[in-house]
Amino acid sequence: MSQTALGPRTDRRHDPEPTAVDTEQLLSLLSEPSVRDLLGMLGDRPMAARELAEATDVSRPTVYRRLNDLQEAGVVEVSMAYQSDGHHHKRYHLTVDDLSLSFAGEVEVAPGR
Fold first, then answer.
1. pTM of the model
2. Which among 25, 96, 100 has a CA at the least distance from the CA of 66?
3. Which residue among 10, 39, 59, 99 is least packed, with the fewest CB closer than 10 Å?
4. What structural domains and CATH numbers belong to the chain?
5. Euclidean distance between CA atoms 94 and 73, whole angstroms
6. What distances in angstroms separate CA 4 from CA 9, 22, 103, 113, one per listed residue?
7. Which residue spans within 8-106 are E strands per DSSP?
8. Whole-angstrom distance, CA of residue 113 vs CA of residue 88
9. Residue 70: which residues within 8 A CB-CB, separation 6 or more?
10. pLDDT digits over 36-67, tens only?
Protein backbone atom coordinates (compact mmCIF):
# COMPACT_ATOMS: atom_id res chain seq x y z
CA MET A 1 0.00 0.00 0.00
CA SER A 2 1.41 3.35 -0.93
CA GLN A 3 0.59 6.47 0.99
CA THR A 4 0.78 10.09 -0.06
CA ALA A 5 0.72 13.19 2.12
CA LEU A 6 -1.93 15.68 1.10
CA GLY A 7 -2.44 19.26 2.18
CA PRO A 8 -5.13 19.85 4.77
CA ARG A 9 -8.46 21.52 4.11
CA THR A 10 -8.15 25.23 4.71
CA ASP A 11 -11.24 25.38 6.95
CA ARG A 12 -10.24 22.55 9.28
CA ARG A 13 -10.07 23.29 12.97
CA HIS A 14 -7.61 20.47 13.56
CA ASP A 15 -3.84 20.51 13.54
CA PRO A 16 -2.73 21.53 10.03
CA GLU A 17 -0.60 18.40 9.56
CA PRO A 18 -0.71 16.84 6.08
CA THR A 19 -3.22 14.04 5.68
CA ALA A 20 -1.86 10.57 4.86
CA VAL A 21 -3.92 8.99 2.09
CA ASP A 22 -3.84 5.37 0.98
CA THR A 23 -3.34 5.93 -2.75
CA GLU A 24 -4.23 2.43 -3.93
CA GLN A 25 -7.38 2.23 -1.82
CA LEU A 26 -8.48 5.71 -2.87
CA LEU A 27 -7.99 5.03 -6.58
CA SER A 28 -10.01 1.83 -6.24
CA LEU A 29 -12.80 3.69 -4.41
CA LEU A 30 -12.89 6.47 -7.00
CA SER A 31 -13.82 3.93 -9.67
CA GLU A 32 -17.28 3.71 -8.07
CA PRO A 33 -19.84 6.35 -9.12
CA SER A 34 -21.46 6.29 -5.66
CA VAL A 35 -18.15 7.26 -4.04
CA ARG A 36 -17.70 10.15 -6.44
CA ASP A 37 -21.26 11.29 -5.65
CA LEU A 38 -20.57 11.19 -1.91
CA LEU A 39 -17.30 13.10 -2.26
CA GLY A 40 -19.06 15.74 -4.35
CA MET A 41 -21.72 16.19 -1.68
CA LEU A 42 -19.15 16.37 1.12
CA GLY A 43 -17.22 18.97 -0.87
CA ASP A 44 -20.06 21.41 -0.19
CA ARG A 45 -20.36 20.91 3.58
CA PRO A 46 -20.14 18.27 6.34
CA MET A 47 -23.13 15.95 6.26
CA ALA A 48 -24.68 13.05 8.14
CA ALA A 49 -24.90 9.66 6.42
CA ARG A 50 -28.69 9.91 6.44
CA GLU A 51 -28.50 13.24 4.58
CA LEU A 52 -26.12 11.74 2.04
CA ALA A 53 -28.41 8.76 1.43
CA GLU A 54 -31.42 11.05 0.98
CA ALA A 55 -29.55 13.38 -1.41
CA THR A 56 -28.23 10.57 -3.63
CA ASP A 57 -29.59 7.33 -5.07
CA VAL A 58 -27.31 5.36 -2.75
CA SER A 59 -28.80 3.13 -0.05
CA ARG A 60 -28.04 4.01 3.56
CA PRO A 61 -26.04 0.79 4.22
CA THR A 62 -23.92 1.48 1.13
CA VAL A 63 -23.39 5.09 2.22
CA TYR A 64 -22.10 3.90 5.60
CA ARG A 65 -19.80 1.31 3.98
CA ARG A 66 -18.37 3.84 1.54
CA LEU A 67 -17.89 6.47 4.26
CA ASN A 68 -15.99 3.91 6.34
CA ASP A 69 -13.88 3.04 3.28
CA LEU A 70 -13.17 6.73 2.62
CA GLN A 71 -12.28 7.23 6.27
CA GLU A 72 -9.83 4.30 6.10
CA ALA A 73 -8.35 5.79 2.91
CA GLY A 74 -7.74 9.06 4.77
CA VAL A 75 -9.96 11.50 2.86
CA VAL A 76 -12.98 11.61 5.20
CA GLU A 77 -13.16 12.28 8.94
CA VAL A 78 -16.12 11.96 11.28
CA SER A 79 -17.16 14.19 14.17
CA MET A 80 -20.15 14.23 16.49
CA ALA A 81 -22.80 16.94 16.12
CA TYR A 82 -24.87 17.64 19.23
CA GLN A 83 -28.33 19.18 19.14
CA SER A 84 -29.95 21.29 21.86
CA ASP A 85 -32.45 18.50 22.61
CA GLY A 86 -29.61 16.13 23.51
CA HIS A 87 -29.66 14.11 20.29
CA HIS A 88 -26.42 13.64 18.45
CA HIS A 89 -25.25 12.18 15.15
CA LYS A 90 -22.07 11.70 13.18
CA ARG A 91 -21.15 14.27 10.54
CA TYR A 92 -18.67 13.39 7.84
CA HIS A 93 -16.32 15.90 6.23
CA LEU A 94 -13.43 15.85 3.78
CA THR A 95 -9.86 16.07 5.04
CA VAL A 96 -8.56 17.64 1.81
CA ASP A 97 -9.80 20.31 -0.59
CA ASP A 98 -8.90 18.52 -3.81
CA LEU A 99 -6.80 15.73 -5.28
CA SER A 100 -4.67 15.44 -8.37
CA LEU A 101 -2.93 12.48 -9.98
CA SER A 102 0.70 12.31 -11.04
CA PHE A 103 1.90 9.67 -13.48
CA ALA A 104 5.63 10.51 -13.34
CA GLY A 105 7.40 7.38 -12.10
CA GLU A 106 4.62 5.76 -10.10
CA VAL A 107 1.03 6.87 -9.74
CA GLU A 108 0.66 9.30 -6.83
CA VAL A 109 -2.25 11.28 -5.43
CA ALA A 110 -1.37 14.82 -4.32
CA PRO A 111 -3.14 18.10 -3.57
CA GLY A 112 -4.00 20.23 -6.57
CA ARG A 113 -3.52 23.96 -6.41
1. 0.73
2. 25
3. 10
4. 19-110 (1.10.10.10)
5. 11
6. 15, 7, 13, 16
7. 19-22, 76-82, 88-94, 100-102
8. 35
9. 29, 35, 38, 39, 76
10. 999 999 999 999 999 999 999 899 999 999 99
